[in-house]
Amino acid sequence: MNLAICSVGELFGGVERHILGMCTWLHRQGQQPLLILFHDRELAKQAREIGVEPVILATRGSFDLGAVRRLGTLLAVHEIDVVHAHGYRAVVNCALARRYHRFGMVRTVHGLVESAGWWTWQGFKGIAYTRLERYFGRRANAAVVYVTEDLRQRHLAKAPGSTGITIHNGIDPLNKEDYPRPADLEPGWFHLAAVGRVTRIKGLEFALEAMTKLDPELKVVLNIIGTGPLVGELKAQAEELGVSDRVRFLGFKKNVYDYLAHIDALIMPSLHEGLPYTILEAMSLGTALIVSRTGGLIEVVADREHGLLVDVGDVQELAAAIVLLAGDPDLAARLGEAGRQRQASTFTLETMGTSSWNQYLASDAEIRGQQ
Fold it and tell me: Is the whole model's pTM more than 0.90, yes or no?
């Protein structure tokens, strides 16, 4: 079976980590997937580092019929049997490319569209793109994979009778000893960190408010690692709340594993999440978790077993969880070790890869049965 993986490759986050993981797993099986991207950026760079040379399909905007034709020709030349598409642009373009070459198709739903209000341009685009992805996915008879059961149930509620399976994200275990402690994680402080794109859905305003509830003698510092549209607003909020001396905006860090390995707790007070790779990486490194009771997070983290769960937007509960871990290093260590064992036994790259390959085989068999 000849496999292609198609995505935009413009940003770098969970989708892109998923793709790199699948490329790594496929290489171990002796497979050489064709990686097709629309941008030559961080994903393309990291793909090359693991021995995958991507094909960069230049496009003029989101919908380019010339690019669709070139994509179809490319897939035909490589005799591709199945395409795994990630994101609405990849799904739409691949679905249209089936006019030039017949292949089975799989699409993965990684999360919900961030709500900006349908009356805003950003909100309207998000809703429109989601509907386009669904429509063209159905048109191509694409198998649908959800990274959490929560996402699958939400989509089934909106489209009764639709099908799909859940395949959780997975990673290879990480070894804490491989990652040196960053100099800016000073000893003597309890280091919290929020890692990821700084957007509204991450709920970081709740973390800033929780910092105001803490006794300064606890010596807790919040490190926000990542960039995004809310950085300026959150910096202003930290100043207004009087916690700017205990909240640090570190920006994007290429050595993020160094931080995940040596912080005292990862905090994720999100409004909603799919299954973020940051959670799995922190678990693998034995780091304690404080996360919202929402979405895929509750499929991974059992309260007081692998981490502490708090209700979305409950600042008092969030502050109490921070105080609990800051005052009880043994508890933090126990939660971290339990999380490490859970990741190593359940959320592995081997499990994700094997399940995904079985879906590719099913899609390939279906398309062959139609020919």
Answer: yes
